[in-house]
Design a protein that fits this description.
two-stranded antiparallel sheet, mainly beta, single chain, flat, 118 residues, 1 helix
Amino acid sequence: PEAILGFDKKRNKFYRKSLLESTSMVMSPVDILNPQLKRFPKFSNAKRIQCELKQGDILFMPAFWWHEVQSYPDTKENRNLAVNFWYEPFFTKEFPCIDCRLYFNTHYNHLLYNPPNI
């Protein structure tokens, strides 16, 4: 797991106790709620984009975008469901190579060589 959760019985809510060090190249080691700016000084220049999704909404996150998700239950039904769907990007590159060019993902060769009949 990447985070340790706690549960506040009085408020009947989960909360993040701490963020674990990540061994994955796609997970940021920065805890955005308590950033260590001496260790990650460029984080102070990060620009926040915030959105709120309502029932039936979907949010597309491009490949390689680091992001933080905080989910809260519906106030009336006291339920919440968040689903991640990982897909193969149409164009891809070596990660974390900033200077590498995008290339066509061969996962989609069937679309080039056997296009569907529409």
